[in-house]
Amino acid sequence: MTLVGHEDAWRQWREGLSGERMHHAWLLAGKKGLGKMHFALAAARELVAEPGIPQPEGPHPDILVLTNLPKDEKEEKKRDDGKDYELARNIKIDQVREMQRRLTTRPTLGARRAVIFDPADDLEKNAANALLKSLEEPPAGTFFLLVAHRPARLLPTIRSRCRTLRFPLLDETAVAKILAESAPDADPATRAAAIAAAAGSPGAALEFVAQELGPVDALMQRIVQNGDPDFALRGKLAAEIGARPDRERMAAVLDLARATLARMAANAPRAALPAIVDAHADIVRLSAQAPTHNFDPGLLVMQIGGLLASAAAASSLADA
């Protein structure tokens, strides 16, 4: 299946695959929720398949995927029991070293092996340095696919050794179609809010619906429109988000706040733009820090609300 917006990436990948010397490392860059991991898995299967050799339907022995593991033994047990579990914040160096040990052996079914990092943004520092060594001296027949939501977080030396495939944002019509197919039970108001908040990412729109962010979005809209001088709306926002939001919910909330400010900037008076842009930059910074910092959830939500309120105040002054 080819997802919407992947056409050019497939063209470039298949041109490389049919060439005399396939590049050994590919950076799949674009906003979270565009299907880059779906592309990576499908592309890896094309890479390792050989005529006359049956390919397994399920996990492939010549496709290695490095991603965030359960954060500890307790969460690992939850995973093994089929329960929801919390992920580690980073891809660890031990995972990279285990991958490198695997690369000393020959591929199982053919002459090629693919290694996928999802997301490569989450490599801890030592793990990134270890990966760099493999990229500098790739084993014969080994190809790397690095999924990156924020490529700037990767080491420049890693980026420089990769050929980049960029995944574009989709227009609202395309996002609406995907949402209608994948979340047909969502009510029209929630669907409309999800499309607006997603800013071109169908994955973000689906996460909006899954996390039931409609009430959160409504409160954020009230804050940027009216401000929050008595902190009452920030209190309601914290209550709606929950006292102990998991990593996925907090990431979705931060993404929603960023999208809220981006929409605000598109229609704001010129005089208000510097304050809105500063608030947006602070939300982006918090989004980058949240996976690796132990923020108190309540304080983080109040900080988000404060940034939204500061943008509202600047807009009010500009209108006066």
From TrEMBL:
Q: Which residues cross the membrane?
A: none
GO annotation terms (biological process): DNA-templated DNA replication
Q: What are the protein's GO molecular function terms?
A: DNA-directed DNA polymerase activity
EC annotation from Swiss-Prot or TrEMBL: 2.7.7.7
Q: Does the keyword Transferase apply?
A: yes
The name under which this protein is listed is DNA polymerase III subunit tau
Q: InterPro entries under this entry?
A: DNA_Rep/Repair_Clamp_Loader, P-loop_NTPase
Q: Which domain of life does the UniProt lineage start with?
A: Bacteria
- Which EC class is this protein assigned? transferase
Sorted keywords for this record are: Nucleotidyltransferase, Transferase
What Gene Ontology cellular-component terms does the record carry? DNA polymerase III complex
Keyword Transferase applies: yes
